[in-house]
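Task 17 of the worksheet. Students: predict the tertiary structure of the chain below and write it out as structure tokens. Keep your answer in the requested format; marks are given for formatting as well as content.
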Amino acid sequence: MRNKKKGRYLPIILFVGVVAASVIGLVIAQNARQNNIENPGVVTSQDDVTRVTAKEAYEAQQSGGAVIVDTRSDTQFAQGHIAGAINIPLDQIENRMSELDPGTWYITYCT
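Model answer:
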């Protein structure tokens, strides 16, 4: 009978352990993502580019921490774009890189 009492709490302890491990994992992942956004490092391929959500891009732009770059054509940009975004069409980016400040975080988009 004594063994049944000890075993009764095991599922609860395991459940609490799994929940705690999940929460800790989510916190670590969020911190790593935020650190990667703030310090992206060297980009060697498109897979190295940090992806941000629309909310993160908006907050970065509003805080002055980023500039939004619309990579669509001039015509598409004129039809509508994110307020405050600059337009550098995709086929012009390579030739216009000298216009961009290396110390500024640019978030590109096209829709």
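Marker's comment: The longest helix spans residues 10-38. The longest strand covers residues 67-70.
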